[in-house]
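Listing 4. Sequential folding, example run.
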Amino acid sequence: MTHRWKRWLAPGAAVTAAAMLAACSSSSSSAGGAPASSSSAASSAASSAASSAAGGTSASLTKAQQMVSQLEATTAKYPVPTASVAGVSSLKGKTVYYVPLVQFIPGFVVTAATMKTALAKVGMNLQICNGQGQPSAIAACVQQATGAGAAGIVTDAVPYGMAQNALDAAKAKGIPIIIADQYPPSGTENTDAVTYVPGVVDQPTQIAWWIIANSQGKANAILAQESDSPSSIAYVQNSLSVYKQYCPDCTVTVKNITATTNSQLASDTSANLLSNPNATYYYTEFEDSLDPTVQGIQTSGKSGIALAVAGGSVDGLGRLKSGSMVKAVVAVDQAYAGWALTDEILRMATKSAPVAEPFPSRLFTAQNIGSIQVTTAAQASGVWFGDNSYQADFAKLWGV
């Protein structure tokens, strides 16, 4: 089951209605250079330049194929920190508050469950408070945590500004705060007071490698960029350099979508395809937009569209496994994320200083989807990504 919610856009965030990354005349060019269409570049290239470009394209395709193979693999080594955390026993009996943007999104459900397990290892409790996708509800959750004297607050997919007054008040009370799954504002430094754990920010980039490899470097793709959050905009924008450098014959069009209603998203998807009739690849940024995206593709009457999505769970992976139009899904190891977020809040609460806490992820395609069971239990266990050896490693760091 998917869920829709209204994401939040920070005041003053720049949003471009639609951006076009046309193919360049070579596999590498200045980032500030004006892009040229692949057709005009091909027609104007001299024969020697064409030979060079052909060699570059071949090397780029090989690179894309190598990247896809790496991204499809299970986690070989978990990124567990190495520094131990002193003083964890002093937190026994205390409570950490987890405030996801919307509690019932599948990934947040898994993260909450594994945070509860991890905190129990050190004798602590977890209180989940549903942000309901609304600033007022998120602020109320933070205020509840502050009033209860929480040992820490972990928000998930919530921009700081969405509940700034409440978070500032919690910080003033000395309650450590984690902002998970969001890019930090420029110049922000993580401290024991407030720390950003960005999560897997390269999911659109993983899809970019797959689109290049799958299309043999000839893709015409639409990237549906959710414009309701500065972070979701940045995720897509940061992927464009991969197409520019490694896919000179790709045409990539970025279209903004907003998390309004399913019917509007379906309509937008159909319009995006009808205004780009040559597109054969379509990427939608989060799994919660998958249902209306499929509806929109069907409404457009376009066939042969390869659909890709990030933030995958049993919904997207189930569609991939059934042979539907979904051809690529990036999923985040949310089970690991729960332990990593626990580790970070323990470090902050004991004044041990935050550390980098990356999360594993995995690209699923027709090549590897048959290797997993697409069930909620499998997702919750983390078996899609590897084993659970990291749990003992984290517990050792905490002295338990």
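-- end of first protein; second protein begins --
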Amino acid sequence: MEPTPQIEPMVKGIRGLTIAIWSLVAINVFQVAAWVVPMFAPHFYMQFIASSAPEAPKELFESWEGLSFEDKVKRSSIVLITEYKQDGGKLRAIIKEELKHKSGATYHYGVGDEYLPLSVVPKENTTYGDGSLVLLQGTQAVNSESYTIVNGSVTALGDMPLSKVRQIVAQSK
């Protein structure tokens, strides 16, 4: 049965919309794949896709969490030590030392400045330690990880003394 002349334009319109919707679905599938493959199959991505793009640094696709502390320090572009100072009901993280600063890496802080990402309003019955060891990555340095310092030791690293941390950082330069 042939469609009546009045319904024919509507049928053509619906067919056109169907094609447009399926085209959008296909585009979305490719977008999701472009996000999922590097996230869940980084070795495949590095071997077959990113290897053709020389500007894609390998470090961006390797897991930070699986690295040893020494490897994290090697990969960090900036390593800082902060100390907490009580100021009007707030614990301010003041940059005490800059242990490492790769050339070309930029960030908007210097020794003596407050490092805002670690400054806090303390909660009752909570300890924050004496300061933090901060690892930043990239040319536009961003905070990758920080560790609490208590009595001159980094607690999350098995109470590693700061002298040992300084030694590891010096060896990574």
